């Protein structure tokens, strides 16, 4: 399979929506991406697609977030959402998107990534439970599904607190 991973372009928006709608079986995540795109913090280089013969078959978004502790706040990234068309799942497409996204985030100077997701999927990319760093979700979730990854050595050093997602995450 000759796939290409690249940053999104305006012509990709319908294809990105379609991949999300079909992967999640609901429109919420596609709508979330459209809303986040209107947010000035959106970074198009961190909205990556996998293309196969001109068709978008996978998508991943990393969006800037804050980790707040009292008056202190530190920049990080949330990996959310990610999707692969059902017929192309379990072929490594998702893993390739994660690796490319982490590499791009590092190049852009980000030091860490947070993910709320499957406890058996994300650890293989280096994610560990975020509570290990004293980082908590702003809502109740089982400890093992809320994870963090240091993109650089000590990426979370001296950083603890509660993750603050942009308001769009609560709207869908
Ligand atoms: C989650 C999701 C994006 C993963 O994408 P994917 O392309 O299927 O992911 P991968 O192929 O990299 O990995 C999936 C599994 O296939 C396995 N796999 C990877 N390459 C493989 C290959 N060449 N042959 C067989 N299996 C393979 C992986 O080891 C992994 O196994 P695991 O379940 O034991 O971890 C996809 O399943 C999806 O869109 N799900 C619905 C939406 C969703 O839940 N998104 C995540 C929350 S935001």
Keywords:
9 strands; Aminopeptidase; binds coenzyme A; single chain; nine-stranded mixed beta sheet; alpha+beta; 4 helices; about 35% strand; about 170 residues
Summarize the structure.
24% of the residues lie in helices and 33% in strands. The protein is α+β, with helices and mostly antiparallel strands.
What secondary-structure arrangement, pairings included, does this model have?
Elements: E1 3-7, H1 13-24, H2 28-37, E2 47-52, E3 55-69, E4 72-84, H3 93-107, E5 112-116, E6 128-129, E7 135-136, E8 146-150, E9 161-164, H4 168-171
Parallel strand pairs: 4-5, 7-9
Antiparallel strand pairs: 1-2, 2-3, 3-4, 3-9, 5-8, 6-8
The protein binds coenzyme A.
Residues 23-24, 80-84, 89-95, 117, 120-121 line the site of coenzyme A (COA).
Which ligands are bound?
coenzyme A
How many domains is the backbone divided into?
Answer: 1
Biggest β-sheet strands, sense, barrel: 9 strands, mixed
CATH architecture: 3-Layer(aba) Sandwich
Question: Would you mind describing this structure in some detail?
Answer:
The chain has 172 residues and is of the alpha+beta class. It has a single domain (3-171), classed as 3-Layer(aba) Sandwich (Aminopeptidase). Helix content is 24%, strand content 33%. The protein is built from 4 helices and 9 strands. Strands 1, 2, 3, 4, 5, 6, 7, 8 and 9 form a 9-stranded mixed β-sheet that branches. Helix 1 (13-24) packs antiparallel against helix 2 (28-37). The radius of gyration is 15 Å and the shape is globular. The mean pLDDT is 97. Coenzyme A (COA) is lined by residues 23-24, 80-84, 89-95, 117, 120-121.
